[in-house]
Amino acid sequence: MKLKALLTAVFTFTLLSSTQGRDNSSLVQKQEEARMTAEDRAKVVKLLHESEKEFFEMIENLSEAQWKYKPAPERWSVAEVAEHIILAEKLLFASVEKALAAPPNPEWQTKTAGKTEFLERVMVSRDRRAQAPEQIQPQGKWTLAETLSRFKEVRARTLKFTEQTDLPLKAHTLDHPFPVFSTLNAYQWLIYIPLHHLRHNQQIAEVKASTGFPK
User: Nearest-CA neighbor of 142 among 132, 131, 154, 133?
Assistant: First the structure.
């Protein structure tokens, strides 16, 4: 009887150990799936650099009159668009941090499936316009020099985080205030930053192409 009990105990321990091992392996696999791939990281870094380069080329040599010119009373000047880009980047990066501060969402894969591709498709299009939240509406009080300095500061933080983080960004989610986006994961909030920037670079180009833009 003692031998039978001993064999039963050994079998039970082996079975439990095997099950625990499979569970741990599954957990590790899920964490790996939730991290940025090399391609994910490279894509965001590339978009950050491209949007920055285009931004600088568009604004750094503008005169004061060009900087403040408004095509219409209700339209934003280049200065106001640039300010909005910076305020939005701060808010979007805060959304990344807020998502990461929340517990992992066990349904992240189903809740956020296809959202990255959706963002890449709709954010860079100017076909549909949206009202900016009050906290990122520009006041138009920054000089060009101030704007460039503020932009470099916030972009450096975003770029450093993107290049260095190894957190499971995709497992952490935060709901977007616009129902069309619904639940986004932290990686999607991160790639939102340069996509939003590229969208508004187009707006700057529209202002500069307007008929009354100072020469």
Answer: 154
